[in-house]
Specification:
PmbA/TldD fold; 8-stranded mixed β-sheet; 10 helices; 6-stranded mixed β-sheet
Length: 466
């Protein structure tokens, strides 16, 4: 966008009495190739362009968007947003206001440009080999493998962010994600499992993900689960595996630690900064600066530099994740956590790469400390109420723990509880830290996030059975 057009938009917003005006211009090219039934099943590619304009009156937010980048259309959008404000258009005193001045333009790239293999240049064909190799590897495991699905998806975004405080930022973002899912059947039941890693970058990341390894891991897991019995539920200690196990912390505790929840008084952690909300072994972090990680970014969607935010340290709540509005209402510093799916959404505080930090315990010592319980080696999907922290998550692969030893495989287990009640029951934290890619949906759309943790022991949690 031409800075002179941006100034016209800012002037229109100031004339409408706005304290702050922001322009978010975005062009995103995305593509995906998918395989099913041993053949290419889906092939999509498209480009989306638009501009979002945000007006702030204190902490009141007005937001609109358009795909028309003409000065006339954008000024009209501002006037439409501001219609009905008491200040009105052409408010007194704006004519002699200080002219807008931009700081020197910053150009940033979230991925490594030296290694970047641009999907827009290489096209879809490079993905086919990956998909067919995954299919072949999974089907070779057993005649019980009934279906294999795989996909490779990429996106490339160019974003211009300007605001009435003089910010002018040009951002390049690229991400790639692969997915392999395998279904097995014994004639009476069908089970499916999947792996879906992702990272910042382009097609150079394909070489980091072995299709054979991903397919074999999925296939062997689903075959094991096909032969498993069912668990008897009840209150019991649970040892949760590393990596995707962090999805429970993300959903049940991470969302209530966003100022978007705190400022609305919809979080069990309101007003608890400085208080103990977990045992000393628990430290939790949201870090947007980890190079190449799926949820990372150099600047957030308000133009604040990303940072490493320690949320909980040795069991003590240290801060929340904030955006401009949330930071102002809650009274904390900005954390570079403002995010949005695209130009159609106003940014709010969101997680980036959120995880429980490594501890000093071992998985073996956790298992040995349990007389009767569950080892949730891998979590699956679930649901949560962000306002209360209540969650219900399925265990994708679970084992009975009996007399301090891992015993028979079980399925059908669910973990049920409230995040703020479970955290004080985390008594052991392992050193085997790992992470997994995901997509998080909230009021500002769906954004790429990373969840993670080492193995942890929860002293007591309700386990649902068949």
């Amino acid at each position: 966008m031409n800075p002179s057009t941006a100034v016209k938009i800012f002037e229109a917003g100031r004339s409408a009495g706005a304290d702050f005006v922001e322009i978010f211009e975005e062009e995103t090219r995305s593509s995906s190739l998918g395989l099913k039934d041993r053949q290419i099943d889906t092939a999509t590619a498209g480009t989306e362009y638009g501009i979002g304009v945000r007006l702030l009156y204190g902490t009141e937010v007005l937001y609109g968007f358009t795909s028309d980048d003409s000065e006339e259309a954008l000024v009209k959008l501002v006037k439409t947003l501001a219609f009905g404000r008491i200040a009105g258009m052409n408010a007194p005193g704006t004519a002699g206001a200080k002219p807008f001045e931009f700081a020197p333009e910053k150009r940033v790239c979230d991925y490594n440009p030296a290694a970047y293999q641009d999907p827009r240049v290489l096209g879809q064909a490079i993905k086919q080999d990956f998909l067919f190799r995954a299919d072949k590897a999974a089907r070779a495991l057993s005649p019980k493998i009934a279906q294999v699905g795989a996909s490779v998806t990429d996106s490339c975004s160019t974003i211009t962010l300007m605001n009435s405080e003089g910010l002018h930022l040009e951002m390049s973002r690229g991400r790639l994600r692969v997915n392999v899912n395998v279904t097995a059947t014994d004639g009476s039941e069908r089970l499916t499992t999947h792996e879906s890693p992702g990272a910042l970058g382009g097609y150079e990341l394909i070489q980091n993900y072995s299709p054979e390894a991903l397919a074999t891991e999925c296939g062997e897991r689903v075959l094991r689960m096909l032969d498993a019995g069912y668990i008897a539920g009840g209150q019991m200690p649970v040892v949760m595996g590393n990596g995707f196990g962090g999805v429970i912390f993300h959903e049940a505790c991470g969302h209530p630690l966003e100022t978007e929840s705190v400022r609305r008084k919809a979080s069990p952690f309101c007003g608890k900064i400085g208080e103990a909300i977990g045992q000393p072994c628990l430290t939790a972090i949201d870090d947007g600066t980890i190079e190449g990680m799926w949820g990372s970014l150099k600047y957030d969607d308000e133009g604040t530099p990303a940072q490493r935010t320690v949320l909980i340290e040795n069991g003590i709540l240290k801060t929340y994740m904030s955006d401009r509005v949330g930071a102002a209402e809650v009274g904390i510093a900005l954390t570079g956590s403002a995010r949005r799916e695209n130009y159609k959404y106003a940014p709010v505080s969101r997680m980036r790469n959120t995880f429980i930090a490594p501890g000093k315990d071992t998985l073996e010592s956790m298992i040995a400390s349990v007389d009767n319980g569950l080892y949730a080696a891998r979590m699956a999907g679930g649901s949560v109420n962000p306002a209360t922290g209540e969650f219900n998550f399925a265990v994708g692969e679970g084992y009975v723990i009996r007399d301090g030893k891992i015993c028979e495989l079980v399925r059908g287990a669910t973990l049920i509880g409230k995040g703020h009640e479970i955290m004080p029951r985390i008594s052991m934290v392992g050193s085997d830290w790992d992470v997994a890619a995901g997509v998080c949906g909230a009021s500002s759309g769906h954004v790429p996030v990373t969840v993670g943790q080492p193995s942890i022991k929860v002293d007591q949690i309700l386990v649902g059975g068949r």
